[in-house]
Design goal:
This protein has one domain. 0% of the residues lie in helices and 62% in strands. The two termini are 19 Å apart.
């Protein structure tokens, strides 16, 4: 996917990517059982939101390190957001229904190694 790479030195570059990905996705959240402080249907909950095909948009800043032998390390991370939130089906035990936005945003990071030519 598109990524802008700006070399700062022969061995260091910064970059920004705007990838898109898709695939099945299930968000599942629950609390432990009731406590002495709280009991009732809204103290413990279980929410499941399911997308047969979630479309994710990402903002991915990062930087590359290139070594004299051609090895390159890319460090990246960013935020992701579901672009089709209304395609989810939701099951919840909340007395007031399903929360509308849970599970739609995520943070991620990673490292990639390879050879640069």
């Amino acid at each position: 996917m598109p990524r802008l790479r700006l070399p700062l030195t022969p061995w260091l570059a910064v970059g920004l990517g705007v990838p898109v990905s898709l695939g099945p996705y299930i968000y599942d959240a629950r609390t432990p059982q009731s406590t002495d402080v709280c009991s009732g249907p809204n103290c413990t909950y279980h929410v499941t939101r399911t997308w047969n095909m979630a479309v994710w948009g990402h903002i991915e800043p990062g930087f590359d390190l290139r070594f004299p032998n051609g090895l390159q390390a890319r460090f990246y991370g960013g935020g992701s957001k579901v672009l089709n939130p209304h395609d989810a089906t939701c099951a919840s035990n909340f007395s007031y229904g399903c929360p509308s936005r849970v599970g739609e945003e995520r943070l991620y990071g990673g490292v990639a190694f390879g050879y640069a030519f």
